[in-house]
């Protein structure tokens, strides 16, 4: 059953269509990737989901009912890209204050904070001030304040920004754990390699419109180009139109081939074995999400942005 459904959402600013007729459905317990370049409409979409903006048209359904920003916001945890911590306030007091704003009693909040601080090795931070933390430390704190009240929906906007590999992995494992416990996670980013690793489903938006929607696996299958990697010392000389494939390049000391139309992978293997080729490996090459995005918006400023960010 979906936790969140968006039906034909639209949001305009002057003459700009920030969100232009977007519909999508997010299942409970899933990790959902909201993708797109800067200015694509991701932040506007998130602000409607969290009740900060009202849609000009369309409807939001949350947990089976029409979304009520006043009643339902307590079931949402939102970690914006622009961090919102009070720099002069002590960390323990600030976390306690934010937890109580989300409806936790002082005793419950204190207990949960201590559990999270131990898990993230933050016990000694209680009396520090936010301004004394590094960017990565602030990121960990912001994550804790976002999930402390155990929301049904967790929205993370660029959660790994500024984190070293160890702490990135720590946050990643917590995202998996929270999803396994039933929380639904929306992960907004333009870092495609993180999405491929973490997300079950994705939606790709550009210029306010949805241009792609599905599971990561299905999307990659839909855009595959019959490319395979063949590990071999050499391939038969004098390949011609009779061969079921053509060599198009190399990768990681292997030949990259494209299977010709009307042929199957087994035809390639049978052909090579008949030619006496010693094969060490044979693997399908699926496109990356970054490759798919660039293909969909080829030649646009958004495509160039993604090439720069993900190269």
CATH class of the largest domain: Alpha Beta
Named at the architecture level, the CATH assignment of the largest domain is: 3-Layer(aba) Sandwich
Mean pLDDT: 88
How far apart are the termini?
A: 37 Å
Number of beta strands: 14
Shape verdict: elongated
Specify the biggest β-sheet. Answer: 6 strands, mixed
Lateral strand order in the biggest sheet:
6-7-8-3-9-10
Structural class: alpha/beta
Question: What can you tell me about this protein's structure?
Answer:
This protein has 311 residues and is of the alpha/beta class. The protein has 2 domains: 2-220, P-loop containing nucleotide triphosphate hydrolases (Rossmann fold, 3-Layer(aba) Sandwich); 225-285, no CATH class. The chain has 11 helices and 14 strands. The strands form 3 sheets. A 6-stranded mixed β-sheet has the order 6-7-8-3-9-10. A 4-stranded antiparallel β-sheet has the order 2-1-4-5, with helices on one face. A 4-stranded antiparallel β-sheet has the order 12-13-11-14, with helices on one face. A hairpin with a 2-residue loop joins strand 4 and strand 5 (65-66). Helix 3 crosses helix 4. The longest helix is centred in the middle third of the chain and has 16 residues, at 165-180. The two termini are 37 Å apart. The model is unreliable at 302-311 (pLDDT under 50).
